[in-house]
């Protein structure tokens, strides 16, 4: 903390490399005031950019969204705000579509996060071996992450098309190419999960890889001296060492899946995509929010959905924290 | 932390001031996001660029009208900015109207939205009543874009008088008459007759073909031919008991039940593909739809399509648009002149000739290009006279602010009945629930 930082004396220079020129008392007082000002104020200036940007683009929108959520506001009349209190929230909670969206968000979240992290762990383990052209493989594995959501979703839309889609064409050789992927509840959720897995596995792989390389190699040597197989080494040395990293990726993936928007919006596209399918079969919370605000023009409702999402995220974070504490305690 | 503890009052104040200054700087940096487009100001020679924002197909590109306007007014260049999907376009347009930035000089408005804009956003538009003479338009069209105070926010471009497009060759194979007068004679009783014709068709239908593309299209046809649609005159939503909706829904569920439809949501890829494969015998056909059919069916079906009058004796209008001038545009006066020119009879006739969008300006009905127009693709159907007769007879339907959204929602639920086998009652309930959110 600040106690270790050498502070300049507030009463004028005490030597230094060059001897100061003699100054008039008035001038000296002015300088000392400047010194003091520099001393007290500059730290604020140094940290100000973050807080200013956070205030302008994080805190203010957050609070203002909360304010809007308590009003009836229409896209067609932004200047007319009508106070409705908690009305918007109670409408949402009674809306079956909201709960459909919550369910979809969690289903897609689980079926994308779990395989994604497992695959990432496996790939990281493979990349951790001594490989020829290891940089090349690491780059390759990160490429999907570098593509934009829109282009990935549009390409996968072609893969999952009902007629003439790549996947149905392949399945056709096995006599099962009739699936209308976007129409079914599970099939559409799986399709979206596939896009997410494709995009994010590489990212998580690299995080795991970095963590694995930080595991001291003498642990592995000791394990192999004790006769542990590769698999046992992976289970009993690598995984425990990676525990904090795994928790981190779980938190990040959970937040990511709560915000899932581009993939469902573009999988089918058009007005169907913007409402999460003809029967809301793949409507996520973000799509629900978007639909309320931008298709239907009810901004107050939309803001209420945004806050409901925040509360859900905080709940999940709390659960994560509890689980993490439990894991740490039981490990100790 | 020691530092904060020793801060004197004055230093704290200075710190606050410094923070304020930084905030102001940050706001200046981020706040002035005004898109500095090149069309803002006239250059030294008085050259200006007018932008026209529209969606789908307005036909100006096809008729090369913007180039022509530049020839007539060498100092004005017209640039088009066309969105593919109207709902996407409209959402953005509302935001632009709200913030007053990013607006084009001329904006297109779809008929399903015009009421909402007239009701809530009339102040954001320039009054066109001085620029154009609204008595030139078919009466009901002009009324749609006029506020109670007589302010005109939009000049009519096209309208969509209804007809039926049908495949002569498929009708022949199914043992139905192929001549357009004979087909019309079988439909005089209204849309019920259309379904009866469908049942006849189904008995001997060529393999793999369907009588109609989508029951939701027929539903729109039925609702359009009723003056009572989704709203009452006093502005109350009446979609639950409106005569038009009830009749349309009943006929649509009947068509689904009797399997007369291929069940493809219009304008989506499978629908376009089906036109190319030629599996649909009829399509409910507002004027602008004919152009779509010709485009997606392609040369192989040229001359095999034909057009006949809409069922029954009630004329119907489906769709059509307006051109408006936002009051906060950069060149309101010049934009008004452009709108006037684009919606004048000669130009509407040119659009009709090039893209098949039917004029809403009565003056155009008298022009040769419209009056004697025949569509070669549709076996030389005399569409000019078919549509013009109908346009004059269309009743002034009562519009409402959310017409576009409500229509889409009913259409979506009808598609659910077709594609997913949703039971009519469940689909009806789902539609009402979704619409209560729209009007909410």
From TrEMBL, chain A:
Localisation per UniProt entry: Cell membrane
GO biological process: transmembrane transport
Pfam families given in the database record: BPD_transp_1 (PF00528)
Region ranges (Disordered): 1-26
Protein name, as recorded: Sugar ABC transporter permease
PROSITE patterns: ABC_TM1 (PS50928)
GO cellular component, as recorded: plasma membrane
């Amino acid at each position: 903390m600040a106690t270790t930082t050498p502070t300049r004396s507030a009463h004028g220079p005490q030597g230094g490399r060059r001897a100061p020129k003699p100054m008039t008392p008035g001038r000296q007082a002015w300088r000392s005031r400047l010194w003091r000002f520099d001393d007290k104020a500059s730290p604020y200036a140094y940290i100000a950019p973050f807080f200013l940007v956070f205030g302008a683009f994080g805190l203010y929108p957050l609070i203002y969204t909360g304010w809007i959520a308590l009003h009836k506001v229409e896209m067609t009349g932004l200047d007319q705000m009508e106070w409705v209190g908690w009305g918007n929230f109670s409408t949402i909670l009674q809306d079956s579509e909201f709960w459909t969206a919550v369910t979809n968000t969690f289903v897609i979240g689980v079926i994308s996060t779990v395989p994604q992290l497992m695959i990432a762990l496996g790939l990281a383990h493979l990349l951790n071996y001594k490989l020829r052209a290891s940089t090349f493989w690491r780059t390759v594995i990160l490429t999907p992450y570098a593509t934009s959501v829109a282009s990935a979703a549009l390409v996968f839309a072609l893969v999952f098309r009902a007629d003439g889609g790549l996947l149905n064409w392949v399945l056709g050789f096995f006599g099962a190419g009739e699936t209308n992927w976007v129409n079914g509840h599970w099939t559409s959720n799986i399709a979206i999960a596939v896009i997410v897995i494709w995009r994010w596995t590489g990212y998580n792989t690299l995080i795991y890889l970095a963590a694995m390389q930080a595991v001291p190699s003498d642990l592995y040597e000791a394990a192999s001296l004790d006769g542990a197989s590769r698999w046992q080494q992976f289970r009993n040395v690598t995984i425990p060492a990676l525990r904090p990293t795994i928790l981190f990726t779980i938190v990040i993936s959970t937040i990511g899946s709560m915000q899932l928007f581009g993939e469902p919006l573009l999988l089918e596209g058009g007005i169907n995509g913007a409402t999460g399918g003809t029967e809301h079969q793949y409507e996520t919370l973000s799509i629900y929010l978007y639909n309320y605000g931008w298709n239907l023009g009810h901004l107050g409702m939309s803001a209420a959905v945004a806050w409901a999402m925040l509360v859900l995220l905080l709940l999940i974070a709390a659960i994560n924290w509890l689980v993490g504490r439990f894991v740490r305690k039981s490990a100790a | 932390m020691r530092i904060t503890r020793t801060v004197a009052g004055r230093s704290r104040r200075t710190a606050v001031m410094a923070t304020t200054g930084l905030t102001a700087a940050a706001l200046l940096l981020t706040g002035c996001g005004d898109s500095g487009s090149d069309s803002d100001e006239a250059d030294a020679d008085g050259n200006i660029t007018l932008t026209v924002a529209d969606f789908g197909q307005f036909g100006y590109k096809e008729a090369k009208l913007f180039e022509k306007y530049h020839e007539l007014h060498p100092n004005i260049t017209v640039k088009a900015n066309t969105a593919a999907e109207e709902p996407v376009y409209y959402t953005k347009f509302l935001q632009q109207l709200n913030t007053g930035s990013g607006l084009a000089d001329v904006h297109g408005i779809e008929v399903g939205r015009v009421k909402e804009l007239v009701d809530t956003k009339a102040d954001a538009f320039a009054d066109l009543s001085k620029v154009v003479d609204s008595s030139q338009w078919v009466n009901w069209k002009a009324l749609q874009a006029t506020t109670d105070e007589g302010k005109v926010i939009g000049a009519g471009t096209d309208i969509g008088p209804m007809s039926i497009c049908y495949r002569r060759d498929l009708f022949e194979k199914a043992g139905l008459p192929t001549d357009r007068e004979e087909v019309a004679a079988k439909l005089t009783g209204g849309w019920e007759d259309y379904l009866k014709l469908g049942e006849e068709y189904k008995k001997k239908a060529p393999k793999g073909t369907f009588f109609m593309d989508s029951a939701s299209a027929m539903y729109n046809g039925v609702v359009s031919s009723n003056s009572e649609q989704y709203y009452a005159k006093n502005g109350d939503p009446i979609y639950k008991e409106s005569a038009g909706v009830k009749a349309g829904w009943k006929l649509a569920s009947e068509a689904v039940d009797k399997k007369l439809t291929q069940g493809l949501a219009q304008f989506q890829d499978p629908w376009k593909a089906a036109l190319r494969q030629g599996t649909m015998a009829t399509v409910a056909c507002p004027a602008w739809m004919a152009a779509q059919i010709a485009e997606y069916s392609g040369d192989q079906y040229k001359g095999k399509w034909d057009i006949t009058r809409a069922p029954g004796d009630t004329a119907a209008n489906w769709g059509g648009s307006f051109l408006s001038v936002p009051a906060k545009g950069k060149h309101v006066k010049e934009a008004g002149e452009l709108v006037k020119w684009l919606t004048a009879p000669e130009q509407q006739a040119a659009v009709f000739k090039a893209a098949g969008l039917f004029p809403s300006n009565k003056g155009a009905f008298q022009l040769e290009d419209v009056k004697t127009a025949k569509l070669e693709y549709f076996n030389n159907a005399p569409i000019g006279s078919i549509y013009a007769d109908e346009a004059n007879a269309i009743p002034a339907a009562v519009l409402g602010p959310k017409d576009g959204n409500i229509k889409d929602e009913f259409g979506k639920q009808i598609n659910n009945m077709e594609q997913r086998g949703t039971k009519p009652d469940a689909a009806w309930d789902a539609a009402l629930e979704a619409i209560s959110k729209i009007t909410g």
